[in-house]
Here is the input.
Amino acid sequence: MIELQNISKSHGTTTAVVSASLIVKRGEAVALLGHSGSGKTTLLRLVAGLDSPDSGKVRAEGRVGMVFQSLALWPHVSVRDHLQLVLHDERWNPSLRKQRVDEMMALFGISQWADREPGMLSGGEQQRVALARALAPDPEILLLDEPLAHLDAESRKDLRARLRPHLENRAVLMATHEEEDATALTSRFVRMKEGRIL
Amino acid sequence: MTSAIPNSLLFAGIASSLATVFGVAAFAALATSSQRIRMTLIISAIACLLTPAFLQAGAWMDFAMKVGLPYASLPFGAFVLSLQLWPIVTLLLLAMSRHLDTSLLESARLSLTRASTWTRVILPLLSPALALGWVAAFILALNNFIIPTTFQTHVQITEIYVEFQSLYNTSGALLQSIPIWIVSMIALVLAARLTVRMRAANRHTAADSSSALQCTPLPGGFAPWILFSLVLLGLSIVPPLSRIITACCHENIWTSLQLARPQFGASLAYAVGSTVLATSLACVVWIFCRKWKLEWVLATPFILSGFFLGVLLIAISQWAGKYAWWQGTWTLVIAALAIRFIWIPYKAAATAHSRINSDILDAAQIFRLPRSSVLRFIEWPALRPSLLAAAWVVYVLALWDVETLVMIYPPGGEPVSLRIYQLLHYGYDAQVGVLSLGLLAMGIAPGLALLFFRSHSANSVHSVQKLRISSPAS
Here is the structure.
């Protein structure tokens, strides 16, 4: 579960988030809609614990998985190792880990690039790796920052269909400016403007 | 003794001011030239910076003697040193100029004269880099050992050296070096503040403004500036190189090199040992202590004279008495060089790390990757090329080093650089040329090997990418 209570955050003199409050329960997927610079990414970073709020309280219960807008794939790590590296806690013994890696690669259609590094993949292929990495450790909280931004219309449709069943039983917060993605993947919309939740 | 301190300040002041004037002129030519010319000039400027000081000093001393110039004078020594220091100013200005506000440059170009654009807009915007360049050149000139001792300039460091050689009084030498340390420390604090200002200015504009600067016309046109820069490069590089080439034509190279085999062995051992030690220590310090802001502490032995470091190590050995097992051994030499140059790989690691996309590290934090995995899979691959390049620079500087070793090299362990430095005083011109050639070859070889392996691995990646592109998309 994600709970934000009246949080504010500034970067120097720029105010990024102003008095934002929001609750996302387990099993619920919420879309954060808004233009560039409206504070969506800052809000996701606050939930992930990457930044601390200037005021207010953030509660995020459970493991967090995230797809970054820049994808943030590790440049010198192969696709397979991207998935293996995030399965490091005690839940994953070697055989379970291998099974999970194969399962996620098959789900996102990236098995054939298993030994390639991100620099050798196209933007759309990298996007699939980022999604697979976020879902691989089976996180309770999933944060998606423009998760389908680098894809063409057909791949976008295909990935939406693959992703949808895996959003259940998690608290999902997705930042996007594409209403079509929001409608297909989430059950509730929250609009942001100039750092405020409308 | 105190009369030498004003001379030291005057010497450093003249050398750094000349270096700043030369550096600004070269920067103007570099910034407005095409990409290819710029890269060639930058590489030449770096080569200039890496030219051994003893070679530069020897070549100019020969020239002065041949044309009858009074070489044993403070202004001449300062001029020769400035020929080695100007690239610092140029490179700092180039680094900062990439982050200028493009709109300011364009508006100045539209509404101001060429001279005003440079003197009222560009140089004031670059003032932190300009001041930092002057301060860095001043500290290095104040602590320079080879040029003043070769040109018999009456400055504090030569006075301490002469007295230390005759009396071997370590505490006296350290006491006399205090004024130089204090002035250097004040200058270092100033340099630290200027670095902060430069970084803050760079942060405002992330975009690369090189192309906007390239279109800014120079007062009097491009030709006189590039001509001046070429003459400057010529003065900085040609005399040492021509000296080597001339000497090699008059000397049996192989016989001379074979006779100096023990010295080459010592040089190689010191350089390789100190490179490995400095790079490994820098990695350890960077991994475990990077939050402690140790950069300026590590930079101090590099910026201050190596001669003082040598005296300090002798003082420590004397204090340790019979427990100082390292005194008169190669260990002391390798440790001294590693302490002196540790800042270079540390700085390389810190700079390479600051260039890693922060999202990549954030992703590692989100997925709770163990510290060892972050280091192995994310940080090390990003740091490796810079660390290798830094290790090569340490190796070269350790090969060239004279001042750190002059008082501490073990019996029978004289390196080539010191041999050349001593021969310079007795006028063995041809032998100096041959030994310098051998030393240069020894310094350049690993750099060329690094470049070869780098281009080879880049080609492999390129061919894999070509394969990937030619294979059908799945």
The first helix of chain A runs from residue 40 to 48.
